[in-house]
Amino acid sequence: MLSLFQQGLEIVFTFQVLGLIFFGTVVGIIFGAIPGLTATMAVALFLPITYSLSASAGIALLIGLYIGGVSGGLISAILLKIPGTPASVATTFDGGPMMEKGEGAKALGVGIFYSFVGTFLSILALIFIAPTLAKIALSFGPHEYFSIAIFSLTLIITLSTGSMVKGIFSGALGFMFSTVGIAPVDAITRFTFGQTELNSGFDILPVLIGLFAISEIIKVAEEVKHEQQATIQTVKMKGFGFSLKEFFEQGWNCIRSTLIGTGIGILPGIGSGTSNIVAYMVAKKRSKTPEKFGKGCIDGIVASEAASCSAVGGAMIPLLTLGIPGDTVTAMLLGGFMIHGIQPGPLLFMSQGPLVYSIFIAMVVSSVMMLVCELYGVRIFVKMLAIPKHILLPIILVLCVVGAFGLGNRVFDVGTIVFFGLLGYGFVKCKIPQTPFIIGLILGPMAETNLRRGLMLSDGNFMGFLTEPISATFLAIAAASVGVHVYQTLRTRREASVKTAAAS
């Protein structure tokens, strides 16, 4: 192992490879920070450039784009309340309110530091426990994946602060939109109304851009005529902007969120887009002061960023050990491997040991570069607020349209962001939470596909979902979670009615 580590160091610590990692990390941060331009798009655009590079140099460039792109989303999530990537959706919940309270620099410092910690810890997991964790994930079948999806959908209840009915409605609507297109298993066309563009359903990226970015632009544009001249904030941040006491207070939150992100990252097809929301909800459930979440507390930012960035290392585990991509970006990385004639899998560690360790080291170097670049760029990021909104909003709108169109070169995707932008604006006006909609949209296909596959395996018998131990465990946890939440809600209402009666 030490000799392989030394050979990996020799591969990475050359002027060319370090330069490519730095370039990739910076470009990745920019792509992540601009709403609509994700890490997936960055890797896709730069994949052809790796043709002329060596395998180690080309993969190092793609890794820099990956790590920078996932972390960069926190910048727009905090400064503009628009998630730059799906991995930073939950960061907007507390990052935006902190920005409004004048604590934007602190929010950025917290997000930058814990995105680095989450990435670094997940890389350690990748190095030391990759084969074992990958084998566990490989043992999951349709029954287990369906139960995981149901468990995740029960988080809609937790997300529904204020009105549970509105939260369930939002989640059900998202699930409904996920059924548009060609059905899994039997390939029947559903709810397309003769529009061939709808055969593949709604892509998650245009939906996210519309629901969060376009709706936010419309909402801000509605208020911009009443806007007073904004005062430029002076960034006075010592270190990362938070105290040593706050660092120790967030220790368990960070570790727990990193474990969640790494675990979800290992499961193929889920990725950081789900892990940040799940970790945020778990942090809120386990907090002694859950009422502070959504109003500007660092706990939510720590949970979201640690989880989303730790999914990077988690997604690399099945890619390297089994040749199975954990998310869309690692699917692009798999293409990068194949360009250079490398087949990821168990034999990769034996036949290409130095290359594998060079990937580990490149990930560590990229995460450090990401930390430094984002830390020293904080003052530049905060100055974005000085740009008048009547100038900034059209620029963001154009970038959103370009990002949506660039995904598949379809005008239909531009129409999609407009439609979901109006829908998101309606949600804002009616005070309907948007996040349950996204959870329903993301997990809907996973739940439906694995439900049908599970029923096929058990000849139409639903008991298969209860007889499989892992599946039954997740369903039991989901039922218990719903029961506890309903009990707490009823108890809170009963206590409130008692207090009202006593006061009268």
TrEMBL record:
<feature type="transmembrane region" description="Helical">
    <location>
        <begin position="259"/>
        <end position="283"/>
    </location>
</feature>
<feature type="transmembrane region" description="Helical">
    <location>
        <begin position="145"/>
        <end position="162"/>
    </location>
</feature>
<feature type="transmembrane region" description="Helical">
    <location>
        <begin position="355"/>
        <end position="378"/>
    </location>
</feature>
<feature type="transmembrane region" description="Helical">
    <location>
        <begin position="390"/>
        <end position="412"/>
    </location>
</feature>
<feature type="transmembrane region" description="Helical">
    <location>
        <begin position="107"/>
        <end position="133"/>
    </location>
</feature>
<keyword id="KW-0472">Membrane</keyword>
<dbReference type="Pfam" id="PF01970">
    <property type="entry name" value="TctA"/>
</dbReference>
<feature type="transmembrane region" description="Helical">
    <location>
        <begin position="20"/>
        <end position="47"/>
    </location>
</feature>
<keyword id="KW-1133">Transmembrane helix</keyword>
<dbReference type="InterPro" id="IPR002823">
    <property type="entry name" value="DUF112_TM"/>
</dbReference>
<keyword id="KW-0812">Transmembrane</keyword>
<feature type="transmembrane region" description="Helical">
    <location>
        <begin position="462"/>
        <end position="487"/>
    </location>
</feature>
<feature type="transmembrane region" description="Helical">
    <location>
        <begin position="319"/>
        <end position="343"/>
    </location>
</feature>
<feature type="transmembrane region" description="Helical">
    <location>
        <begin position="59"/>
        <end position="80"/>
    </location>
</feature>
<protein>
    <submittedName>
        <fullName>Tripartite tricarboxylate transporter permease</fullName>
    </submittedName>
</protein>
<feature type="transmembrane region" description="Helical">
    <location>
        <begin position="168"/>
        <end position="188"/>
    </location>
</feature>
<feature type="domain" description="DUF112">
    <location>
        <begin position="18"/>
        <end position="439"/>
    </location>
</feature>
